[in-house]
Amino acid sequence: MLNKKSILIICGGGPAPGINSVISTVTKEFLKDGYRVLGLHEGFKGIFSNKPKIKEMDFNHADRIFSRGGSTLIMSRFKPKNEELNEDLFLKNNVKLLVSIGGDDTASSANKITTYLQNKNIDISNIHVPKTIDNDLPLPDRNPTFGFHSAKDEGVRIGNTAYEDARTSQNWFVMSAMGRSAGHLAFGIATSCHFPMVVIPEMFNKNEITTDKVIRLVISSIIKRKIENIHYGVAMISEGVFHHLSNSELEKIGIHFTYDEHGHPELGNISKSHIFNMLIQNKLEELGLHVKSRPLELGYEIRCCRPIGFDLTLCTLLGMGVKKVFDEGKSGCIVSANSKGEITPLYLSDLEDEYGKIQPRLVDVNSEFSKLCFQNLHFIEESDYEEAKKYVNNPWEFDLKKILKE
Question: Which residue has the higher pLDDT, 141 or 45?
């Protein structure tokens, strides 16, 4: 058994629906070809451990986990620094392929590890499967990352329930959804639920994001609905808004971030919806408007839900794509599938800009789809000024178009 060729699977970053589906498919494909399939717990932390926790994968386990949420392999955001690589892990198990599942940081780290091993005459390939519910990896033809549609679907289920609660109770919810750099998840959930307001960082492509502007956008929607005799609603705010706030803006509301191993602020340690709800309530009180609003954080609830049919199909295709690309002798690449179901290997260099950085894929606010969706929001316009004066003295300060040009 020790001389039998094997592959090693690791998962980095946070969970996303479909991880188990990828692991299951990859396992079945390689078992069929006579390989041992080893799952390594704790991602890169396991590779740099003297006592790595290895799970030997078999068909029965792979079959059982295929449609489950979460990950059968414990995940970790560990990023190697000066730790010593456990070369014996690869040598003793005759590992021929490292399969990494994660974002661009995971892909980059996997490339560095296999390059290091190859320089030491340890023959190993690596193939990466892109994963993120944020949908912000710049895949060709704007193809989605796996997990996004399942997370959005679960978010829509919760969002529709919240909207029904708002209508039943005649109050407002201030909801926040995940998305460090891009607003795909917040935008997708809000438009699917017909929320009257959504705020994503991409809307501020002509000016700086401030908490005051975000607050006025939400209150713009509240006033517009009051004019139309609608006294409830849900305002969705992407957590990425926080990622784009300047330090001076963060200091105004007293936020002190902790940071992960990749240098990203750990947005999960604070409740974005609670903070914005508090700020909105303070502004409503200042304006003399009596509106009840409640915070609702949409975060970890959607990361480990069961994958929907779309992601089950996509993850199956990507898992089979790993075997196809490996059999073609390719390494150091990302497996990608286009809308026709064709597998294409991508390299980090294909996605990097001139400075060697992978820029996140943003919501295209200039697309016809986005423009039509934004038109469907409820907000103050110039034609509403007279009616809006029943509620505020300066309605133009709550005009969405003006706010986004400030």
Answer: 45
Q: Indicate which residues carry an active-site annotation.
A: 134
Element (H, E) at 100: strand 95-102
Q: How confident is the model at residue 289 (pLDDT cuts 50, 70, 90)?
A: very high
d(CA 340, CA 380) in angstroms, rounded, equals 43
Report which of 233, 221, 224 is spatially closest to residue 163, judged by C-alpha positions: 233
pLDDT, one tens digit per residue, over 67-113 is: 999 999 999 887 777 678 888 999 999 999 999 999 888 888 888 88
Second CATH level (architecture) for the domain 151-302+376-403: 3-Layer(aba) Sandwich (3.40)
Domain with CATH 3.40.50.450 in the chain: 6-146+307-351
Tokens for 229, please give them: 């005799």
Which band of pLDDT confidence, cut at 50, 70 and 90, is reported for residue 265?
Answer: low
Confidence at 2, pLDDT banded by 50, 70, 90: low
> Which residues 6+ apart lie within 8 Å of 108 measured at CB?
348
The rounded Cα 11 to chain-centroid distance in angstroms is 15
**Ramachandran angles phi, psi of 45, nearest 5°:** -60, -35
144-148, 164-168, 361-365 — most confident range: 164-168
Specify whether the CB–CB gap between 295 and 8 falls below 8 A: no
pLDDT at 21: 98
- DSSP secondary-structure letter at 196? S
Which pair of structure tokens corresponds to residue 336? 């990608």
CA distance 391 to 166: 21
Q: 295: part of which helix (H) or strand (E)?
A: strand 293-298
Closest CA to 162 of 277, 296, 299, 305: 296
CA angle 94, 98, 101 (to 5 degrees): 150
Reading the block at residue 268, the tokens are 């999960």
- Classified as helix, coil or strand, 146 is strand
Domain with CATH 3.40.50.460 in the chain: 151-302+376-403
Q: Please, what CATH class does the domain formed by 6-146+307-351 belong to?
A: alpha beta
Closest CA to 184 of 146, 152, 218, 208: 152
Contact residues for 89 (Cβ-Cβ < 8 A; gap 6+): 8, 40, 46, 47, 52, 95
Alpha carbon separation from 94 to 143, 191, 262, 333, 404 (Å, rounded): 35, 50, 30, 21, 57
pTM tops 0.85 = yes
